């Protein structure tokens, strides 16, 4: 039988880094642990601070946007709906800008290379005027 945990040669203290930059900590038996027993470290820090487990609709926002900075003063507890509405740039790589012609606020994917206009008619009007 192969050694595991602290007896394994590649043991790093039960902490590993997620591909998105978050730190995961080994916490077997935790209600929100993945199949390998790891939980996001920022959730564990907030749970310890609050003295309870987080609900499904609660999420943790990193104030300085550094996903590996899990100091309690850098973490903010908000609900999932508020997180996506307050920080639209975090949703699917979107950007927010105002149309150059009408001034309407537009949220669009970064991958769309259509210029800073809300619609094609606004682009035609702007092109005729300038």
Describe what this molecule looks like in 3D:
The protein has 130 residues and is an alpha+beta fold. The chain has 2 domains: 5-86, no CATH class; 94-129, no CATH class. Helices cover 21% and strands 23% of the residues. It is built from 3 helices and 7 strands. The chain has helices at 41-50, 80-86, 120-129, and strands at 15-17, 23-26, 38-40, 58-62, 75-79, 94-98, 105-109. The strands form 3 sheets. It has a 3-stranded antiparallel beta sheet. Strand 6 and strand 7 form a beta hairpin. The relative contact order is 0.09. The mean pLDDT is 82.
Q: How many DSSP-defined strands? A: 7
Instruction: Write down the overall mean pLDDT.
Output: 82
Report strand order across the widest sheet.
1-2-3
Query: Gyration radius, to the nearest Å?
Result: 22 Å
Provide the domain count. 2
Main pleated-sheet profile: 3 strands, antiparallel
> Order of helices and strands, N to C?
EEEHEEHEEH
Total of DSSP H or I helical runs spanning 4+ residues: 3
Uncertain ranges: none
**Beta-strand fraction estimate:** 15-25%
Separation of the first and last Cα atoms: 75 Å
